[in-house]
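Regression check, 3,4-dihydroxybenzoic acid case 312:
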Amino acid sequence: MKTDISTKIAGVKLETCVFNASGPLDETLRDLRNLNNSASSAIMMKSCTIEPRQGNPAPRYANLEYGSINSMGLPNQGYKAYLEFSETLRKETKKPIIASICGMNVEENITMFKAFNDTPVDLIEFNPGSPNTIGKPIVGYDTKAMDKLLKAVSKVSKKPFGVKLPPYFDLGHYQQIADIIKKYPVKFVTCINSIGNGLAINPKTERTLIKPKGGLGGIGGHYAKFHALANVRKFYELFEDKIQVIGAGGVYTGTDAFEFILAGASAVQIGTAFIQQGPQVFEKVQNELRDLMQSKGYAKLSDFRGKLKTLD
Ligand code: DHB
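Current build output:
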């Protein structure tokens, strides 16, 4: 029996359900070529803004015992570079190419969505707000702003697009956000962005681990997995599988990937583990997922996707 871990996102075929999360090691053409040479099943690009950005002052990323903290501040080469990178990569790869758009306001997002219409990118992941932009609230927690942004980009996008969401913690918030997303032609949601505004401290030096925002940053890695799983599960239920869910947050192993798919995810992304373990992590997670499925007698993702059992 050959184990098939392929998937489709918005009708786009991915050879496996495991690829990189937007953020780590995906800013330069060199980074993106490295991803092409890895087993990542898609090439996800860094969230882009209108102008190139240096990002926040260093140190702005730190490994933690069970994950990571970052306040990168959206360092990226500006969207025009990613339009070009997508053209260059298209000549070099068959893998789906995914743009991540993170404008600072409605107009900027419209400009970038329109520009990517004329590129070979296969999908767009709309990142309505970084948790680390100094002076900006997390947009995913502002339902009115989300509605306005989704309405605007839905009008102009000719590419299938999804939305990267921050973690929600209150059951009422899932319903509010799902109701907004359902009004628009959103094909998928990615759950979750890093858990905003954690604080990591070095007790020896009595200092924060990172410099920006008084040491506050987004938390990822193992710490994020349980909230990521909950967000995947709730949106899977609320969307009744009509809008797909991609899991991100603490995927280090094939078992982690399996849990996300059991909760309803159609694919998983790897962020912190990619930084910590390098590009081999994609193949490792894929092989472990295949082995686990084989041991359970599952031949393909649809054999268990969403079929999480509860105790009641
Ligand atoms: C950054 C972090 C995020 O979590 C995000 O969604 C976008 C950008 C950053 O700090 O670069």
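Comparison notes: Residues 23, 47, 70-74, 102, 127, 130-132, 193-194, 218 surround 3,4-dihydroxybenzoic acid (CB under 6 Å). The CA atoms of residues 264 and 306 lie 4 Å apart. No diff flagged against the previous build.
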